Amino acid sequence: MCGIAGIFDLDGYRPIDPQILSKINNVLSHRGPDDDGVYMEPGVGLAHRRLSIIDLSSGHQPLTNEDSTVWVVYNGEIYNFKGLMDELKNRGHTFRTQCDTEVIVHAWEEWGEQCVTYFRGMFAFAIWDQNKKILFLARDRLGIKPFYYTISPDRQFIFGSELKSLLAYPNLSRQLDYFAIEDYFAFGYIPDPRTIFQNIYKLSPGHTLTLYPGIKEPKPKQYWNVTFNTNSTGSEDTIGETLIEKLRESVDMRMIADVPLGAFLSGGVDSSAVVAMMAGLSEQPVRTCSIGFSDPKFDEAYYAQQVSQRYQTNHYDMQVDQDDFGLLDRLAEIYDEPYADSSAIPTYRVCELARQQVKVALSGDGGDELFGGYRRYRWHLREEKIRNLLPLNFRKPIFGWLGHVYPKLDWAPKIFRGKTTFQALAQDSIEGYFNNIAIIPDQLRNSLFSEKMQKELQGYNGIEVLRNHAVDGPDHPLSQVQYLDMKTYLPGDILTKVDRASMAHSLEVRVPLLDHPFVEWVSSLSPHLKYQKRQGKYIFKHALRPYLSNEILYRHKMGFAVPLAIWFRGPLRDRVQAAVAGGSLADSGIFEMKVLQNLVDQHLSGQRDHSAPIWSLLMFESFLRRSLH
Fold first, then answer.
1. Catalytic-role residue among 2, 99, 115, 351
2. 15 — phi, psi (to 5°)?
3. DSSP classification of residue 128
4. Is 351 a catalytic residue?
5. In 3D, which of 71, 221, 195, 213 has the Cα closest to residue 139?
6. pLDDT at 233
7. Are 481 and 433 in contact (CB under 8 A)?
8. Minimal CA–CA distance to 403: which of 414, 391, 385, 418?
9. Above 50 in pLDDT, residue 416?
10. pLDDT for 557 beyond 90
11. How far apart are CA 384 and CA 133, in angstroms?
């Protein structure tokens, strides 16, 4: 796990400024505190910060081949590197190290741009081929590792592991992308490939980018996509046994390390499954880490302890105080652009705790997207049944009217919150799902934006992100929303959250449930095996019954939440009121400040619960103060 950065001259072979290259690299020192290195020649500069995990003595980067004609900087882990190393040796390649980085160099020599299809793991890397005069860039299939890039006005291509690395380049424009702002207040994060700034992009998961001197408009190329072509046969027991075999193999590959290794353990199904597999593969007790909350409504510590006791792990836990909101500005610092998932707070804390014990931690991220575990999938499937019974031209006027007149009952259980349901039933499938996941509904979001902002948007709506992905997605309603989440929520929110929180503490996190052969196999299973008898993750839980108790497998899903509504009416009250009274939000010209004030007044009075919109505004305000002043 590391940080990478670089500069490439798109017009030729102008010299790279070593001070600038060093500057954009050193900004990433938290990602790689163990070592750093640079390689430069006319027209190209590569830089690297290293967190040593495998082959501690000889993994220095940038790393080259035997005759110094191919150079690589790389962030991640290639878990099948030993098998690839043997294959490449048989093909005549000579290795000087035992690290996975060198495999990338020789794989490029052997297979060229197709080398990425051989790699099993998480990665973002840049290869400079001196003979071919090609800079080849790649990001892993699911987007576990980040990759940012931009082109300066004088046609210097700048790339890095985090946005802050690019922003260290002198005089780079920080003009806000208004479409990205709309996306942020719709999703709570900014989906790939946009960033908050115009002309700065993320390389999308499963994509590569090939550059050479004189190229006019570099265009990313997709090399992998998840498909949902149902191809599952056999009984539930047989499929369950295969699932466990494949999961165990994925976990086993991710336990290779020359440094202390452990796991996050929330007490939920996914992290508990990973720990159960680790315990069966390890001769030593697994080190596990979890976060507890002082408020029992948010605390899963009891369940984590139950799993820990069953598998005799060395368990470390930390209780997060209910008022642990002091991280607000720290989050703006580590995420670089607006990011409104409040579970970043406990994620930051569990990474902080884990780094005190280990240098590598396995997590259970990806299980909900893979096996259909989110509650919103259940609601979407129910709505789809009604949509399929009635044509849109019949539903739209009836349910649209009901959605307009029905009161908004934020305080009630979801089954009684008919307004949102009626609104969703008046829409097509993509609109309905967007309506379910948007952190601020369309009508309220539009009212927040100033007239100037509305003109900048030119009618753009965040739903276009989902519509663009849906074109290549599956038709089954469950598979469709799983696919949309894998393209947006998983890389944009979940994996971004874990990468930045872990790297802030120089901790590597590995994600066995997102091993791409495992993802491909699970995606080929019938949707009926994922959602059945009103139960998400049906086959996953069925397969895990010998390994976890029913109390763990079938309990109510809690999530990694924090008590925002209480904070805003209590200890954060003054900060919230100050944010909408003036300052950065007002100065930006983006918002209708009277609407913001009314939003806050309604929440503080208890009239409505606007926790999500207010948190997103606070994070945006913190971003503005840090980044634009």
1. 2
2. -65, 145
3. E
4. no
5. 221
6. 80
7. yes
8. 418
9. no
10. no
11. 52
